[in-house]
Structure formats: C-alpha cells, structure tokens
Write a structure and sequence with these properties.
Blueprint: E1 5-10, H1 16-30, E2 36-41, H2 53-61, H3 78-81, E3 84-87, H4 90-99, E4 107-110, H5 131-153
Helix pairs in contact: 1-5, 2-5
C-alpha cells in the first residue's frame, strides 16, 4: 500500500487549513501512521506567509507547532499528488471541483464530512473574529482529522 496523502484547503491557507494540517499531523503521529500531509489555499494573496498568529497560538496550546508552515496556492499537480483533497467549506470545495482536471484521482470532500452528523457542513472561518473562534475551529478540524484518519486506515474504505 502506498503512503496515504492529504491536502487541506481553505481560502488563504493561513487559518483553517494549516490548523487542519497540524491536527492531522498530530493524530497520524499519535497513531504511528506515516502520511504525506500538506495544506494550501484557493487564493494566493497570503502565499509565503506563516499561519495567522491566532492559529499558531491555538495549535501550540494543543502541543502542535505550525509556525514553520507557509501559505501556498493549490496547484494543478496537487490533484495527481494527493489521495484526498479536503476543503474547509463549500465555496472552496466548489472551486476545487472547478480546478480539478477531469482525470484527477484525488477524492474531494469537506472536512466535516468525516465527522458523524456533520456531513455537508463548513468549518467556521475564524479570520474576522477573535481568538476564541480559533479554538472552535481547532475542535472542528481535530474531529475531522480523527474521522479522516480512521477512514484512511480502515481497509474497508
């Protein structure tokens, strides 16, 4: 079996998707699962920037360091490179579907599709709110990471 690979995607790649990347790295490491994990944005205006300081702070409170991550934009080759491309919200999922080459093997989904009872829901965007919103976002992406990891490691999927 090849190494599973996941790309998490939000709009600017400085809040939700780097938190999701950090959460997935943490749960995969905890469970001893080797994976290729990355994040990107559908937009490019934050390219090269680290995650929002509030995202870094909430991840650090949970023992996860995302400070070295740098924002980047989704690229065409991502649809070939990753098994799973997981959007944080319906708008970014729609954009990913628009960008995906017809022959792309990547499976597209929403982060909360991997949480029982949350299918079709979007991860709350904390960017324009206060630090408390980042805590709620962390809980959502952590739950999504747990569910996605279980799906990836379950041979019935």
């Amino acid at each position: 079996m090849s190494t599973p690979s996941v790309l998490f995607v939000c709009l600017g790649n400085i809040c939700r998707s780097p938190l999701a990347e950090g959460a997935m790295r943490a749960v995969a490491a905890r469970d001893g699962v080797t994976m290729l994990i990355d994040s990107a944005g559908t937009g490019n205006w934050h390219a090269g920037n680290p995650p929002d300081p509030r995202a870094q702070a909430v991840a650090a409170r949970h023992g996860v360091d995302i400070s070295t991550l740098r924002a980047r934009q989704v690229r065409a080759e991502d649809f070939q490179r990753f098994d799973h491309i997981v959007a944080m919200d319906r708008d970014n999922l729609a954009e990913l579907r628009r960008l995906a080459p017809a022959d792309a093997p990547a499976r597209l989904s929403l982060m909360l599709d991997h949480v029982p009872g949350q299918k079709g829901k979007s991860v709350a965007d904390p960017y324009f709110g206060d630090a408390a919103g980042f805590g709620a976002t962390w809980e959502e992406v952590l739950a999504g990471a747990e569910g996605l990891l279980a799906r990836i490691t379950d041979p019935r999927h």
